[in-house]
Design goal:
two-stranded antiparallel sheet; 8 strands; single chain; alpha/beta; 176 residues; 16% strand; binds zinc ion; TIM Barrel; 6 helices
């Protein structure tokens, strides 16, 4: 289940949440800006946006509302201005997710569009033994299994041998 909304005000979803197999948290917006729109930013603006994005991802993990955080490098879809701390930010994210037992998603759309960013995410997750989910937060059902072959190759390349899935609301680790 995906809740594409402000996760601080999701109380009305409570009964739906209780039935969900797993709850996916997604960040699509920063201060009202849908950052996947047709924007371009200066280097300085772009770096600030990345920093804000990482902060929101951390908050989503720490909120305790979600079992998965989807597409954690989606900011890269329009914003090429990676901060110099990019890998450190990813590592911090991976470390927090690992300690909270929250999975980070290796997203198929990201994998096809900017695999170099997904590679850096996967390296951080491998280093911190972060649970990984593979696929999509399913805005479009036909994209759920997108790029599974490429993703499997990438995960093997960085030494990840297991992915997390959920069955009847219980997390299970599957070997690749
Ligand atoms: Zn999404």
């Amino acid at each position: 289940m995906n809740i594409p909304t402000d996760f601080h005000s999701h109380v009305s979803y409570t009964s739906a949440l209780q039935m969900a197999t797993a709850v996916i948290g997604s960040i699509h917006e920063i201060d009202g800006l849908q950052f996947e729109g047709s924007y371009s930013w200066s280097r300085e603006e772009g770096e600030v946006l990345w920093t804000q994005y990482f902060k929101l991802l951390q908050e989503a993990i720490l909120s305790g509302c979600f079992q998965v955080i989807s597409h954690p490098v989606r900011m890269g879809s329009r914003n090429p201005h990676l901060p110099s701390t990019f890998d450190e930010e990813l590592e911090q994210l991976a470390s927090i997710a690992s300690s909270c037992n929250v999975a980070l998603e290796i997203n198929g759309k990201d994998m096809l569009a900017y695999p170099h960013l997904v590679y850096r995410l996967a390296c951080a997750c491998a280093k911190h033994h972060t649970p990984l989910s593979v696929g999509s937060d399913a805005h479009y059902p036909d994209r759920v299994a997108q790029a599974h072959g490429e993703t499997e190759q990438l995960l093997c390349q960085v030494g990840v041998r297991r992915v997390r899935m959920w069955k009847q609301r219980e997390a299970e680790e599957y070997s690749l």
